[in-house]
Amino acid sequence: ELGGYEDFMLKEIHEQPAALQATLAGRLDAGGRVDLSELGLDLSGIERVVIVACGTAYHAGLLGKSALERLARVPVEVAVASEYRYGDPVGDEGTLVVAISQSGETTDTLAAIEAARAFGARVLAVTNTQGSLITREADAVLLTKAGPEVGVAATKTFLTQVAALYLLALGVAGVRGARPAGELEEIGRALRRSPEKVEEGIELLGERLMSEAVGVFAGARCALFLGRGQSFPVALEGALKLKEISYLPAEGYPAGEMKHGPIALVDEQCPVVAILGEGTLREKTLSNVEETVARGARVIAVANEGDAAAERIAQSVLPVPTVPEILSPLVSAVPLQFLAYHVAKARGLDVDKPRNLAKSVTVE
Ligand code: M6R
């Protein structure tokens, strides 16, 4: 079953290109046009989107928000399902609730759907499990096709959730005419190539680079993951991966928030993992990271291949291939999965079955 891999988590990280490919197949043509007619939903009438989810799926939801708002210009709220269900939520028939759940069995996510039903929302489920409870509660289902995920830490299901949300954003943007068709198709074509880019990224991360990065964690007592824009949810996901399998306290923060509190944590035993991203935000993140270096932080940077500024400030650079900025989370999440994996293995831990955790949370 492990197919030569030491653990399921490692196997599932490597399965990501194929999982992405399967999720995009039949929904995105060679010209970059998206077809979501399988949903049977009228995407043109959506006035507002609410995304509900837990854990890793919530982080995918944050990325879905940024894609939907940027491409489709629809307002999006993202809520942790356990909060949303008790929050007396506001909405109407023009609200599309997108409930994301790998297992399709998470109690809080199911209860959040019920809460939204009370105001007449339509519900789209994004799930990896055909026939799960969520598929029965929803009006429409967008299936991620990652295949079964055994490791408790979500990896390939995260990437496919993000890809599914990009498809949704492109689909909604198309029917609303929110962006020129040519621009959407260009992103669509790049999304179609994302499985190759993720594969390329996996190949870039040789053993030497990974052991250098793990070396930065020697003696660490905590870690800070920093990013801005789309790299912020990636930072949250990187921190969650690290804490759940290595048991190191880790926080994901928007890099610009550092001086409002968390920079007090910084010293040689609290490495900073910086997801630099691209565009103007890269410069901003770099300057936030430089401030941590001045306070003794050891830095791991996730940056494009050949990023000289990253090489200058970081003890270790985990390179990612260049993709259009909006798709960058698909490549930048992967080195963080490997990082968490190798740090946990270096500590002799069971990465597939971390303590205190279950693969699916069917109690409140
Ligand atoms: O099955 P779900 O997607 O609803 O599960 C939600 C969370 O429990 C899950 O994403 C959890 O955070 C991950 N296993 C963490 O890696």
UniProtKB/TrEMBL annotation:
Catalytic activity: D-fructose 6-phosphate + L-glutamine = D-glucosamine 6-phosphate + L-glutamate
Keyword vocabulary terms for this entry: Aminotransferase, Cytoplasm, Glutamine amidotransferase, Repeat, Transferase
One GO term describing the cellular component: cytosol
EC number: 2.6.1.16
Localization in the cell: Cytoplasm
Domain of life the protein comes from: Bacteria
Statement: the UniProt record of this protein carries the keyword Ribosomal protein: no
Active site: K359
Residue ranges of domain SIS in the record: 39-178, 213-354
GO terms of molecular function: carbohydrate derivative binding; glutamine-fructose-6-phosphate transaminase (isomerizing) activity
GO BP annotation list: amino sugar biosynthetic process; carbohydrate metabolic process; fructose 6-phosphate metabolic process; protein N-linked glycosylation; UDP-N-acetylglucosamine metabolic process
Record function comment: Catalyzes the first step in hexosamine metabolism, converting fructose-6P into glucosamine-6P using glutamine as a nitrogen source.
Quaternary structure and partners: Homodimer.
Protein name per Swiss-Prot or TrEMBL: Glutamine--fructose-6-phosphate aminotransferase [isomerizing]
Encoding gene (name): glmS
